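Narrative of accomplishments. A recurring question from our advisory board has been how the design workflow behaves on a single, concrete structure rather than in aggregate. To address it, we present the structure tokens for one chain from the evaluation set, followed by the sequence designed for it. No filtering or post-editing was applied between the two.
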């Protein structure tokens, strides 16, 4: 099973981002940086320097599914710690491919 520690972050204009496509074609995007719902909200290049991140979940049709999966009214969820992200990853991996 994928874990937060396995995500590969890349520099992306005042933020870092890790993107992963699962076998069931769902996707997760994890970001941190200036203007992102994370701690701290700074332009840092190392994910180890952040204690929380912004997460988006995308369904196989390319639609934001964060709200549906986490029962929220938003396309992203902010201030997610490493354990929170591991839990979201587990939820995504449990979804049967449609």
């Amino acid at each position: 099973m994928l874990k937060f520690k396995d995500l590969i972050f890349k520099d992306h204009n005042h933020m870092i981002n890790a993107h992963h496509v699962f076998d069931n074609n769902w996707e997760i995007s994890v970001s941190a940086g200036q203007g992102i719902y994370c701690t701290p909200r700074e332009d840092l290049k190392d994910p180890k320097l952040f204690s929380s991140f912004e997460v988006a979940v995308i369904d196989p049709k390319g639609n934001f599914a964060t709200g549906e999966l986490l029962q929220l009214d938003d396309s992203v969820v902010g201030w997610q710690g490493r354990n929170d992200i591991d839990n979201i990853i587990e939820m995504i991996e449990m979804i049967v491919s449609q």
